[in-house]
Design brief:
alpha+beta, seven-stranded mixed beta sheet, 9 strands, elongated, two-stranded antiparallel sheet, homodimer, DNA-binding
DNA sequence: AAGATACTGTGTAAAATTTACACCCTTAAA
DNA sequence: TTTAAGGGTGTAAATTTTACACAGTATCTT
């Protein structure tokens, strides 16, 4: 009886769909590849998992190496395992997503040679991507659209202090539909996990809006209660 | 510049969490392993993906080989990639789930030597399982609990013709809570995808209940409309 | 055949949530 | 001081969700 694992020329890789939000627009992070196959193509940040690292660790490392970004909360969302998805051999890829605040200060700078550069690109009008990355992106986008309804992921995309209008336009960008201003505010505030600050928006040429903060503690409390008091 | 894939001693495997429903109880399919590691342990049906098959194909094949079951609609739900989850080397496993009618006629019979037998086991009071299979099961169970609310997966577990009480007790088993009979019926029927048959339950020692069928066409129509008419 | 048993099948009112909808206010810039 | 741009607010109607109880019927028992 066989008791030893077979050796195939098979590798695991990770691909990352990283969402950001800027100027009312939803964007994702792309790289320009500097390596065959698909040299010079645009692609999702992705690379091969090392033998001695978990896939979660690999996802963090790979994103960092290709884009310079660190300490994101990445979550796996799907695994792509068609036989010929990679032209050089059998590669199964586990796709992760994360949402982050786009921040002018944080420079996007690949620390390996595999990517020539990394940059934000609006999710609408995405160019052709390497491998099956377009499909991976679509799958990921659908997932976060779903999760937006039951997880507080929107706040990861916004600056720490934000206005209700910014929050609403983020929801509109992800869900791709217009929402009613009064109803949106009523509902968001009714959850009780938004903290109104004594501060206002600055630098706008119109009446400045109040700033709010997402209160993680309150959110956790509410969420746990829901689970515990389950009828 | 490296342009060829590295060769690691890494393999992909598939593990299956197959749910069934019988006698008002939710069950999953387990095997008794006949191979090291974890020889003689109970485990989820799972095995290694071949080099030339997609992971979806592998899932079908592996389930068939270990249990004799075929033609299920399996869906991947999570990939487990901790470094030491398999004692013999680096194995990443993609976990799939499916829901099926338990049917006395369909015999569970492994067609490989890797499993000694396959059998149904209630999801409550699961024994210790091989590898990280307990965690895989828990993750899968949580997923279907969620999906029950927005996908018609319940009907895959029931016989083609079923009573509303059977449907309700399935929901109660998966969600692990009591539901109100009148409200449950009102809501289910209001969707419009249950077809009332001219037939009644047989072989019960009390008033026989009406039988219903799940109408896939109507379901699809309703579901598509929802998507298309999206405001 | 009478009674016991076990589950079927049904309606309504109250409460909660969701939806639709429009205008005055404030700030900065011109 | 006027204009431009978005800020901020309330209510009524419609819809959905919740809570709740009992008579009806088939079978089995004695």
């Amino acid at each position: 009886m066989e008791t030893v694992l077979p050796t195939f020329n098979s590798v695991f890789s990770i691909d990352c769909v990283i969402f950001g939000f800027e100027a009312g627009e939803l964007k994702i992070l792309l790289i320009e590849r500097n390596q065959e196959p698909f040299k010079d193509w645009l692609a999702l940040p992705g690379y091969i998992v090392e033998q001695d690292e978990s896939i979660d660790d690999a996802a963090e490392r790979i994103l960092y190496e290709l884009t310079g970004l660190r300490d994101l909360h990445m979550q796996q969302f799907h695994t792509f395992g068609e036989v010929n998805r990679h032209p050089q051999g059998r590669v199964i890829t586990v796709a992760y997503y994360a949402l982050i605040r786009i921040n002018g200060q944080k420079e996007l700078r690949p620390v390996t040679q595999y990517a020539r550069k990394a940059f934000w690109h609006p999710v609408n009008e995405l160019p052709k991507l390497a491998f099956d990355h377009t499909e991976i992106f679509e799958t990921g986008f659908n997932k976060i659209r779903r999760r937006l309804n039951y997880q507080p992921i929107a706040f990861e995309l916004l600056p720490e202090k934000f206005t209700l209008t910014q929050l609403q336009s983020l929801y509109e960008a992800v869900l791709n539909k217009k929402l009613d201003k009064r109803n949106f505010r009523k509902k968001m505030l009714s959850y009780g996990f938004l903290k109104e600050l004594d501060e206002k928006q600055k630098g706008v040429s119109y009446r400045a809006a109040k700033l709010y903060k997402f209160d993680r503690r309150k959110y956790a409390k509410i969420f746990n209660n829901e689970l515990n008091l389950d009828k």
